[in-house]
Amino acid sequence: MREKLDKRTKWSYCVGATGRDAAYALVSMYLILYVQYTMHLTSAQFAVISGVMIVCMVWDAINDLLMGIIIENTHFKMGKFKPWILIGSITNAVVIVCLFTIRPSGWGFVAFYSFFYLMWGMTYTMNDIAYWGVLPSLSSDSKTRDSLVTTMSVFVCIGQFSVAGVVPIVIAGNAVNAYRIVALIVAIGLVVFQCLTAFGVKERERKEQVDKLSLRDMYHIFARNDQLVYAGIASVFFNITCNILIIFGVNFFYIEYGYSESGNLVFYFTVMYGLGMLISQASYAAIAKSISRQQIVEICFVVLMIAYAGFLGFGYILPKNVILLNVIGFIIFFFQGLMNLAIIVMINNTIEYDEARFHERHDSVISAVRSFSVKLAGGINQGLSTLVLIVSGIYVKSQNISALEIKVNQGEMTSAEVLEKANHYIGEITPTQGLVFRMGMVLIPVIALVISYIIIRKKYHIDEKEYEKLIQKQSA
Question: Kindly report the CA angle at 53 between 182 and 232, in degrees rounded to 5?
């Protein structure tokens, strides 16, 4: 159970995260902004697109679990996980290029987008479930697993930051063409980095399940594992907390600082995101040696509540200072990163919990819960963010800017003219509209964070001592 992890496997797995998370960041953070600020759609059409995204994300959440079953029943010569890592990355790269390149108009775009967004979710799921399924299978040693999660998460941050930091700088004033070029580069990077994982990782050989898993088997695996259920629900609410700020982020800077000035400011804030997440990921293993996961969660909860209060008061009670905003952002991202890793480890540890009780091991199925929670939270966030944008009136203003971006792509305006007129439209946003937007941006993640914390505190009990007992029981 405590096999040593070879360096080639460790680094091939961890470095491979760079490309896949760059691709995920592009779609999850900027696809809806691409639609909002480069397509001329009515509020009804935008609402339908958002509704489709919600349905697709909910289906993706369910499909994650189904993919877990498919992988559990896979017996390719190349391995259990690696074929799906490779197939998923290639097909997902093609879909990403299509999403940011093909541009029918009106309801034709709604139909095109609906189909290809569904395809994006399904192809990403092939890769995602297989990639995360490898993680718990590489080692059952808690220290090795913490170290592996930490190293992998550093490259996750690098991938996300490479997209999150660059895109805001290059899009304003030439958004249509800029998104197309970025999508192509990211798609190529996705395939290259995931090939590194697929051909570099050495899967551990385990005793295969004699019987094929079915949907009923999957239901029983979840139903009997109470700790997995609680950790999964907590993960859903925590991902709502994390993702809503990212979804609203660019709109926030447009509202507060204008269209032309926001690119650099978003970049600086993204640096805080990158540093906060990177430092938290890199330091998690060391922190976990000093304090328990439960203590990590408690500290993160308290600090995040204070930081979100500061974000809500920024520009109202607190001064509208860019340095202060970046400090608040760093604190939020750092402690979100810590808490996220603690929850990932909690989910992974339910694999041994299930194995110790029922003498069965289902890495792929149980690991799929992490992806399930991310997708389900994404669907919920999409619905909530669309509601806030429409109710606050921000979406209507953004459509004026979208019309300008379309004209510059057609050669009818210059980038300088677009930036000037876009700033004028941003200036028409009223203080009330800005406040409604800010309230949605802060209260939604705070409520979700409180729910996640209560579930972990009251219901999850696999602490470090309990986990060691589970490992010893298996070794006996």
Answer: 100
d(CA 269, CA 285): 26
- Does residue 117 contact residue 55 with C-beta atoms inside 8 Å? no
Place of tokens 């899009």: 171
- Kindly tell me if the per-residue pLDDT of 303 is higher than 90: yes
Provide the 3-class DSSP secondary structure of residue 201.
coil
CB atoms under 10 Å from CB of 166, counted, come to 18
- Cα distances (angstroms) measured from residue 440 to each of 14, 387, 388, 397, 400: 35, 9, 6, 18, 22
CA nearest neighbour of 276 among 154, 145, 374: 154
User: What is the CA 416 to chain-centroid distance, rounded?
Assistant: 34
Q: What is the mean pLDDT of the chain?
A: 85
Tell me how far apart the alpha carbons of residues 242 and 6 are, in angstroms, rounded to a whole number.
Answer: 33
Structure tokens at 128: 């995602």
Spatial neighbors of 99 by CB under 8 A, at least 6 apart, are: 27, 31, 113, 116, 117, 120, 183
The string of pLDDT tens digits covering residues 346-398 is 888 888 888 878 777 776 677 778 778 887 888 788 788 888 888 888 888 88
DSSP classification of residue 430: -
Cα(13)–Cα(200) distance, integer angstroms: 7
- For residue 181, what are the contacts with CB-CB under 8 A and spacing of at least 6? none
User: Helix, strand or coil for residue 119?
Assistant: helix
Alpha-carbon distance of 422 to 437, in angstroms, equals 19
Q: Could you say which DSSP state residue 41 is in? A: -
Beta-carbon count within 10 A of 156 CB: 24
Strand partners, 79: 76
First-to-last CA distance in the chain?
Answer: 11
Phi, psi of 79 (to 5 degrees): 135, 180
Joined together, the tokens standing for residue 231 give 């950790």
Question: Are 188 and 109 within 8 A, CB to CB?
Answer: no
Distance CA 219, CA 415 (A): 54
Q: Note the pLDDT tens digit of each residue in 428-459.
A: 889 999 899 999 999 999 999 999 999 999 99
CB 233 within 8 A of CB 292: no
What is the C-alpha separation between 163 and 29, in angstroms, rounded?
A: 9
Number of residues that make up the chain = 476
Q: Which pair of structure tokens corresponds to residue 86?
A: 């490779």
Distance of CA 135 to the CA centre of its chain: 17
Helix (H, G, I), strand (E, B) or coil at 5: coil
18-37: pLDDT as tens digits: 999 899 889 988 888 898 88
